[in-house]
Design goal:
Blueprint (H helix, E strand, L loop, with lengths): L2 E5 L5 H9 L10 H10 L2 E7 L2 E10 L7 H9 L4 E8 L8 H13 L5 E7 L5 H9 L3 E7 L6 E8 L2 H10 L23 E5 L1
Parallel strand pairs: 4-5
Antiparallel strand pairs: 1-2, 1-8, 2-3, 3-4, 5-7, 6-7
Length: about 200
């Protein structure tokens, strides 16, 4: 099975909304306006394509984003710079097929050249031991717990230090031309409808 990761396209937002709201209690529901806000403001918003269909999506923000999630604000209060995974959703028919792991490899390659940490939360009320184990195997640790003011959900707040960032910062961001090399896999999210491409996995 080939898994292709690329930037979401505007005409796919209805499919993203349906996928999100069919994911179950571990994922907070969205409406069309909220999906549009994510599309407009997220620093990372990519979909996984399997056999020509959207098999999942991942949305992430950097610490300077204009975003009102209380979990995002919690991380802003505890970390100086980070990439925050707001949500990852994988279609039920594709769970266990490696889509989540390909997404996490991709978001790490995006984050580690830009920020020293990746942050995310896992809700604790819904029997999410598998999700906690999944994140633990990727090097995340609990930095605290938080109850969301907007939903009352109790979350484990997870952080992963990115060891490559210090070298990238010293070598490129604070040296040479102060910029990352101009190559496709380091590019920012396309905002003008261009078809950004990131990774292919199995």
């Amino acid at each position: 099975m080939s898994i292709h990761i690329r930037d979401v396209r505007e005409h796919e937002l209805d499919s993203v909304l349906a996928l999100n709201n069919g994911a179950g209690p571990a994922i907070l529901p969205l409406d069309a306006a909220r999906v549009r806000l994510l599309f407009d403001r997220a620093d990372y918003f990519r979909v996984a394509i399997v056999d020509g269909h959207i098999a999942g999506f991942l949305v992430a923000f950097t610490e300077g984003a204009e975003y009102d999630s209380s979990n995002f604000r919690w991380f802003k209060d505890h970390l100086d710079a980070f990439v925050y995974i707001d949500r990852i959703v994988v279609a039920s028919s594709r769970r266990g097929a490696g889509v989540g792991r390909v997404f996490y490899a991709d978001i790490q390659s995006f984050a580690e050249v830009r920020r020293p940490h990746i942050a995310c939360e896992v809700f604790l009320e819904d029997g999410n031991e598998a999700a906690l184990l999944f994140h633990g195997t990727f090097g995340f640790h609990e930095a605290g717990q938080h109850v969301m003011s907007e939903s009352g959900k109790h979350a484990s707040m997870l952080v992963k230090p990115l060891q490559a960032y210090e070298w990238v910062r010293d070598t490129y961001l604070h040296g040479r031309d102060g910029e990352l090399p101009s190559v496709p896999w380091l590019s920012e999210r396309a905002r003008d409808g261009a078809e950004g491409t990131r990774a292919t996995g199995t």
